[in-house]
Amino acid sequence: MNAIETTSASGNAGWMLISASLVLLMTPALALFYGGMSGRRSALNMMMMSFGTLGVVSVVYILWGWSMSYGTRSLGGVVADPLEFFGLRDSVVDGAGNYIAGASGYANIIDVAFQLTFAVISTAIISGALAGRVKFGTWLMFAGLWATFVYFPLAHMVWGGGLLSHAENSIASWMFGTTDGEATVAPIDFAGGTVVHISAGTAALVLAVMVGKRYDFLTTPQRPHNLPFVMLGAALLWFGWFGFNGGSAFAADGLAGLAWVNTTAATAAAMLAWLGVEKLRDGRPTSLGAASGVVAGLVSITPAAAALTPVTSLALGAIGGVLACLGVGLKYRFGYDDSLDVVGVHLVAGLWGTIGLALFAGGGQTLRLLVVQVVIALFAMVYAGIITTILGLALKATMGWRIEPESEFEGIDIHEHRETAYDDAGGEQRAVTARVGSGQNQAQPLQSEQSAEMRSNR
Fold first, then answer.
1. CA distance 396 to 390
2. CA distance 260 to 243
3. Are residues 418 and 326 in the same domain?
4. 35 & 123 share domain
5. What is the pTM of this model?
6. DSSP assignment string, 189-228
7. Chain segment 224-251, per-residue pLDDT in tens
């Protein structure tokens, strides 16, 4: 490698380490975003679900996640052999102790770091559909299982040369043939429309239906307890997303710059579009709408960040903001309790970004690309939906999903973590602690119709 190549690889390595750090920041940012949207008595639990995911998925990714996602021994194009690079064996250093170089010329361990953060945030997104009513231990078990059986296979299928990629053995190649070993119409998922948002949004829908509604769903107003937290979380998500999308160029180059600008364009347009819908529909634009519009724009542009121009990114983002704003109302129409609008934002905007990009980037192959994008989006939904259903039912039959009705009524924070977010809840904490200390491990039964209804949904 000559001096110019060495300098280039060093610059790319630096950018990718920064990008990995930015994406890692997105999970604590999600904790703030979700925590602020939750009620006062469930904010800590909501944030702990993100932090717990960060712990569980990081561990399993190092042990078998990298191997399942990017191993060379593919199992039918669906997933790679989890034992090939188990524990990052043969992925970090060679027999002589030298760092193994990846395809981009820098150390392969940097790509491992980058991809690990994607697996974490993708899994954590799902938790927003379950606010205030599920056991923390069951969630942690689900996080490890879902990453293993849904996220890692999808990462392999899309980015590891599997069924949803541009490889010769992919679905796109079966549909339209190949040229020089690649599909003639290659599917586009630059940074995770199918792998991240469609899969997480589908899983959120499945679990919201399976776990059931909160005891006060549609009976009392569900207001965020801390809107400044929500806006701060959205701002940090936007900041981290530059690593999410810009880092997916795997180099400090013009493509990363295009992804940066397109990300900003789509996000700004989506936020304004969401606020416009609120103004027309409700008479007032809201801070929650601004924060949600930001996330909708980020989700919409994720699969398309390197395929569009800044102007077409504005259009994609604006439409995504409108669709997501309308999409959050689906839970009221169909009666499922998607607590923090994971389905409305991530699934709806993820589907739009994945499919809609074909309308702006297809060129002479618009119709064929549109067909390919629809197929990979539906495949991701069906796969994630089936596997999530199996995992969810297995955990429901063994560990159980729901906390006790009385615990949900009094607040999940104190019952799952024996903590409260605010000092003014200290009286409640002392009361519950006293019951626990006296051997009463559960709150006294609530003699109410709500309590009976909650038990019937367990």
1. 10
2. 9
3. no
4. yes
5. 0.92
6. -SS-IIIIIIHHHHHHHHHHHHH---TTTTTS----S-HH
7. 999 999 999 999 999 999 999 999 999 9
